[in-house]
Task: structure prediction
Amino acid sequence: QVQLVESGGGLVQAGGSLRLSCAASGRTCSTYAMGWFRQAPGKEREFVATITWSSGRTYYAESVKVRFTISRDNGKKTVYLQMGSLTPEDTAVYYCAAPRGSYHYTSVPTSAYEYDYWGQGTQVTVSS
Result:
């Protein structure tokens, strides 16, 4: 099993920045990537960004591509999501997730069904 704990959410004004963290513990060697998803009220959960543990390969949703940066610290088993130029449309609960697979996989999964472990989520609210 893998446990994921998000932190760093909060209230920020439009145009501001926020950094989310996701700390992984447990059998992290059984995962090969970490992703961020978000879910706004009344909307489906949507993919935000993902990064592979071994190569650091990244992939972003078009809506966040130039504003968000995902990074990882392998030693700390932690993934970060640096969010900038935030708008009220970024308001959502942000979840980190991890897919099962060999540590050296280089694919970048973007669908929620590809992920097996999920954190509890952290609320991000952007005020206008």
Q: What stands out?
A: Residues 16 and 85 are 6 Å apart (CA to CA). The chain has a mean pLDDT of 95. The first strand starts at residue 2 and ends at 7. The chain is about 0% helix and 50% strand.
